[in-house]
Prior knowledge:
Elements: E1 19-27, H1 32-45, E2 53-62, E3 67-74, H2 77-84, H3 89-98, E4 103-111, E5 116-121, H4 145-148, H5 162-165
Antiparallel strand pairs: 1-3, 1-4, 2-3, 4-5
Amino acid sequence: MASRVNRETVDLSSYPDLVVIYLGMRVNRLYGLRTLMTRGPRIDRSGEQPDGLLAHETFLWSLFPMHLGIRQYWRDLPTLLAWARSEPHRVWWRDFLRDSGGTGFWHETYLLRGGMEAVYDDIPQRRGFASFAPVQPARGAMFGAAARAGRPEDDLAPVVTEDDLHAPGT
């Protein structure tokens, strides 16, 4: 039987530390549309080839509620984390953690060498890993992405510390 399908694959051997990250921004309240429309394009432009970013793709998760997505491919976890702590991303993330502006934000990260991690901020519906795995607060050892992925040696100082984000005793 002859196939009419042009079936291809990829050779990832040149990318042994490849990291894939999915990100989503969801409108939770009507005024969140404004937040999405002001922050969304800036976040999308952030994919204009920082060091270590191999590819950046945007897509639509849903119209109702409005939920936009990004998929990025990074050379390795240290370059992703360094970019996340640089300007302008550092400021966006700090501002979001202070006030989500009627939106929710989440990401899931997959590392070719092993390890996966996720965080969900103001996401009312369980999605991704949270749709089947036990959910717990992103506190203590689960606060930073590198530690959640089982790669604490790659951790950098966080954009916002846990003490800054949470008042003592909360």
